[in-house]
Design a protein that fits this description.
heterodimer, A: mainly beta, 4-stranded antiparallel sheet, 0% helix, B: mainly beta, 1 helix, 8 strands
Chain lengths: 186, 133
């Protein structure tokens, strides 16, 4: 049968990483390191000046049923339009550098702001984060990596994203955005 | 056709048939990587036993096939890339059909790197061993 591939979100400290299947659900980017679909605690505080951030969210593909052949040619993209609302933007980058295939636990001040996603603060990033909505179906973030029969497990680069909240942001949950992974299978 | 599942069948020039799924075989499913792409005469995309698309290949035309999958939340889109490639006077010539599992079929010539679906494939190790380009 065709491979079974999940989108997973990873949280927690190295050595005890929590891997959550978010394939068919939403995952909130709050001001703490954890997955939830509707948690309203630990919201990102709207700053009086400057920018506050979500704790960065780390996602990756995971194969639970091996392909008959190979999965490769991985891509990640958005719909090209940021609809989180006034004063809220999103940056993304891929991560595969160093330990844990580039995974780094998100840090910050719980209930206030995450640490800004930069290559200094996240040493697993392959490049500086950019506006996530520059990655579209026609101009995606190309990910390296593949998986072949009979292997299962995580594969491909991590995709890490973070919401940035400015002083003009409105309170409450933002509109939901969808991100897409695309791949080829033989 | 909406939300259908499509499979493939390859027929070589000597009449040998390779099915993606064969319950008499172990393993039941084989990867398209095993297809000898230089020797395919006819390639089918099937819905059950009904050909949705039939590709007839001339000598010198190498089969191109991939199953391309998009995962967005709880939505999956699947597209089967079916076509051929040959070298003409040092240039690579391609013709590809894109068979979507929602019923659409679109035709294009060469791969288009700035298109959401029509971009090129990446050959696997086994395909590289066949000397495909």
């Amino acid at each position: 049968m065709a491979a079974t591939v999940q989108i997973v979100r990873k949280t927690g400290a190295p050595g005890s990483i929590t891997i959550t299947d978010i394939t068919d659900i939403n995952s909130r980017a709050n001001a703490y390191d954890g997955h939830s679909t509707g948690d309203i605690s630990n919201a990102i505080q709207i700053p009086a000046a400057g920018t506050n951030y979500s704790f960065w969210a780390t996602t990756r593909l995971k194969c639970t049923v091996a392909p008959a052949g190979t999965i490769n040619n991985l891509r990640w993209f958005t719909d090209g339009t940021g609809s989180f609302g006034t004063g809220v933007t999103c940056k993304a980058a891929k991560a595969s550098t160093g330990a844990d295939a580039g995974y780094r636990q998100a840090t910050g001040t719980v209930g206030q702001t995450g640490t800004q996603l930069t290559q200094v603060n996240h040493t697993g990033l392959d490049a500086a984060p950019v506006d996530a909505f520059t990655f579209t179906a026609a101009s995606p973030l190309a990910l390296t990596g593949s998986i072949s029969n009979p292997s299962t497990g995580e594969f491909g680069d991590h995709v890490v994203y973070q919401l940035e909240v400015g002083t003009t942001a409105g309170s409450g949950a933002t509109s939901q955005e969808t991100f897409t992974f695309r791949y080829d299978e033989t | 056709m909406t939300g259908i599942t499509l499979t493939w069948r390859a027929v070589y020039r000597d009449g040998t048939v390779v099915e993606q799924y064969d319950e008499k075989r172990d393993p039941i499913e084989v990867s398209s990587e095993i297809i000898d792409r230089r020797n395919v005469k006819t390639f089918f995309i099937l819905h059950g036993q009904v050909p949705v698309l039939t590709l007839h290949l001339d000598e010198g035309q190498n089969l191109i096939y991939r199953r391309r999958i998009s995962v967005t939340g709880d939505k999956r889109e699947i597209c089967h890339l079916v076509g051929w490639q040959r070298i003409v006077q040092g240039e690579t010539v391609q013709s590809i059909a894109y068979v979507f599992e929602d019923g659409r079929i679109e035709m294009a010539g060469r791969f288009r790197e700035d298109h959401p679906w029509f971009y090129s494939i990446v050959l696997t190790g086994k395909e590289n061993e066949q000397g495909l380009k």
